[in-house]
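User: quick one - fold this with DP6 bound?
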Amino acid sequence: MKKTARAHTNIALIKYWGKADDHLRLPLMSSLSLTLDAFYSDTSVEKTDGPNAFYLNGKKKNAADSKRVFNYLHLLQTKFSLAGNLIVHSTNHVPTSAGLASSSSAFAALAAAFCACYQIDVDKKELSRLARIGSGSASRSIYGGFAVWQKGHDDESSYAYALDEHPPMDLQLLAVELNSGPKKLSSTKGMKEAQTSPFFKPWIKRNDSELKQMVSAISNEDFTKLGSLAELNANEMHAVNLTAQPGFTYFEPDTIRAIKLVESSRENGIECYYTIDAGPNVKVLCQLRNVKEIIKNFESEFKNVKIIEASFGSGISYLN
Ligand code: DP6
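Assistant: Sure. Structure tokens for the protein plus DP6:
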């Protein structure tokens, strides 16, 4: 039986950037995200009598490129005492590995399609825990709107829940694609190296308070608070990268130019904020009335820049 699930990517406003347990993907901090309508993965899982096969965007991947997927599926099979080979088809409507967190939608859709294929009855909390083992950020893509991944302390207690799946807030995200090539350092490696920074522990200590402030900004529909806190949290994440031993950064010269453009737009009365993940691309948080002006500014500053508009996306869904 072939089963297909769709999951949207999410962007973290309070970042997950460190693991307490690599194998179970238990995080060192809680995180909070916004699920995006413009980017998603459709993934189908089907049992087969032939060998395992993984197709990404219609192309069959070799054993090395399929390893993470099948290691994960094997882990799920072991968990539910299942066996057998599988064919996986995944279509990513996200620029893969360009810092737009394609792994969040990919593993959320894969977990859901796997459970549907084997007719395993899971609720969203359980699905979030299963997706988390594939990729931490995938735990949040089970839900639409705003989601919180509570760090927990073991497999049972570390999962995401919906904060507000249908927020009435005026919030838009502009994904500015400056460099859509594959990223240089995976999130998994980057977040490990970041822990050598002298500022890593002090940052973790602030997590509770930043999360609480973000939750209250959301419930008060306070865009200024939400945007400035998201920007601060992203800068804290990139500061621990820069101060790791040895230091590193995902920023490219264009990343800095984009940051400066957001800052100058703000000074000129167009309220917007940036957040940046494990790649050079910048995401701009803004409100509907300023979208056109911000896009115009980026297009005049950067040649051939690609900007994708996004807003609140929905949670996991099943296509067959
Ligand atoms: C910067 O979820 O890709 O996007 O658990 O190792 O697969 P793994 O990491 P991943 O990391 C996402 C990091 C981030 C911040 C975030 O989404 O919270």
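One thing worth noting: The chain has two domains: 3-168, 172-310.
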